[in-house]
Amino acid sequence: MEIRLDGKRALVTGGNSGIGEAIARELAKAGAKVAINYVSHPEAAEKIIQDIKNDGGEAISLHGDISDPTIVEHIFNQIDDTWGGIDILVNNAGVDGVKSDGWEADINDWRQVININLMGSFYCARQALKRMVSQSNGVILSTSSVHEVIAWTGHSAYTTSKAGMSMLTKTLAQEAAPYNVRVLALAPGAIKTTINQDVWNNQQGLNDLLEKIPLHRIGEPDEVAKMAVVLVSDVASYVTGRTIFVDGGMTDYPDFAHGG
């Protein structure tokens, strides 16, 4: 089955690297017009855009910090001016923050993670829904994590933000369903990106990680991106209000394969 998104207008936040880049490229391959949001490394965003254009697609770059609601509104206004609206929002921008136990965490660092991961996703979803509800069509897909259900020592802000994203997804889906708008989350497990290179590029760290994955390998960004394309397409037209895990079975708690 070939999935096509021809003519669909998509925004991918944090779309110039890692999973966001892979999603942006896959959406473009499927025929969508793609707006790539970024806060740093504009050259990376421009490289992706040029690649998309060279393949016959349409793409633009939009600089802006999505933790600022005023900037988010400006980003969506730019999409309105360019394409007349939006059909697909991929809330992908996020950070994991500074590692520290909760009682030692710096309040500003903790707040920054929440502001980007959770508040930023809400700001973007809010702007997208204003447009999607009025046109009675659209899909919002947020990049969550296995850590919306698995605790992660030293990263309480990150796990809290992703758990919050899960309930935000369910609630917005319930609110938007009468208007034919779907809201979903996609939760990757261990994916081979530069953000976790220090783990998979180290044999001891890699071995420890693989013990947590029943499929016994790290996922590739395109494996997450291809699922994203499925979820925002009409193939998944009856799916909303759920987090879809792409984690090689990590949330299946593989240690229990050897007994309780």
Largest sheet: 7 strands, parallel
**Secondary structure tally, helices:** 8
Low-confidence region ranges: none
- Please give the CATH architecture: 3-Layer(aba) Sandwich
Sequence of secondary-structure elements: EHEHEHEHEHEHHHE
N→C terminal distance: 41 Å
Going by CATH, what is the homologous superfamily?
NAD(P)-binding Rossmann-like Domain
Instruction: Give the number of DSSP strands.
Output: 7
Mean pLDDT: 96
Concise synopsis of the structure shown:
The protein is of the alpha/beta class and 260 residues long.
Would you give an account of this structure?
- The structure is a single chain.
- The chain is α/β, with parallel strands linked by helices and 260 residues long.
- The chain has one domain (9-191, 221-237): NAD(P)-binding Rossmann-like Domain (Rossmann fold, 3-Layer(aba) Sandwich), CATH 3.40.50.
- The chain has 8 helices and 7 strands; from the N terminus they run βαβαβαβαβαβαααβ.
- The chain has helices spanning 18-29, 42-54, 69-83, 107-135, 156-176, 197-200, 203-210, 221-232, and strands at 9-12, 33-38, 59-63, 88-91, 138-143, 181-188, 243-246.
- Strand 4 (88-91), helix 4 and strand 5 form a beta-alpha-beta unit.
- The relative contact order is 0.14.
